[in-house]
Amino acid sequence: MEELNYSFFSLLHTAKVMFDSGLSETDKENLGIWELDADNSYAVAMDAAGWIFRDTDIYFNEKHEMDTWLFGDPMIDTFCQLCQKYEQRKGSSEEENPYRDKMEGCIRENFRFSSYNYGYDWRQSLSKRGRKCVVLFTDCEFYSHDELPKALLDIRSLFLTLNQRMEAELAEETRIIPLSTVTAAQRKEAA
């Protein structure tokens, strides 16, 4: 009797998560070429990150044996621009912005992997240089690659939702037109 390998099920689970997420037809075809293989489980998780966030880069640091995943996407850029407009209109700081707070909470929640030897960060602030992105650092002993696509899909979904909410809120504020700009003192003076 042959023992079933966990990585087979991991790969099937990743494929199901990706198919259920509304993956484009091209990405579905790319996902369908993978064989059920232990090495492919890791490779599919890495490719899935690029399908979820279009500007994904992965760098390997040989000295520290660590991968650095940079998840960038135009929707993240839009989120940061909308946050800036929101903060300017409300006269609030980045720390007081509830949209940034929700996004940071989502990143923290979804990057709670069952593995260890990883870290994460995000660049959504105008004070930080470089492209706005979500960053994940994984050590050579990180083994939760199969959890990564679901986490990234949840983060992506919230970016889209918050972008829509901020656009609606900012558009609503611009439609408010004061009926009269005459103050009570000016009315009294005119009489």
Please outline what is shown here.
With 191 residues, the protein is an alpha+beta fold. The protein contains seven helices and four strands, in the order αααββααββαα.
Strand order of the largest sheet: 1-2-4-3
Number of domains: 1
Mean pLDDT: 81
Radius of gyration from the alpha-carbon trace, in angstroms: 23 Å
Number of extended strands: 4
Global geometry: globular
Class from secondary-structure proportions: alpha+beta
Biggest sheet features: 4 strands, antiparallel
Report how far apart the termini are: 100 Å
Query: Strand share of the residues?
Result: 5-15%
Low-pLDDT windows of residues = none
Residues in helices, as a percent range: 40-55%
Number of helices: 7
The H-and-E topology, N to C, reads as HHHEEHHEEHH
Describe this structure in words.
The chain is an alpha+beta fold and 191 residues long. It has one domain. Helices cover 53% and strands 14% of the residues. It has helices at 6-20, 25-32, 38-52, 74-90, 98-110, 148-174, 184-190; strands at 55-61, 66-72, 118-123, 133-139. It has a 4-stranded antiparallel β-sheet. It is globular. The relative contact order is 0.14. The mean pLDDT is 81.
Topology readout:
Elements: H1 6-20, H2 25-32, H3 38-52, E1 55-61, E2 66-72, H4 74-90, H5 98-110, E3 118-123, E4 133-139, H6 148-174, H7 184-190
Antiparallel strand pairs: 1-2, 2-4, 3-4
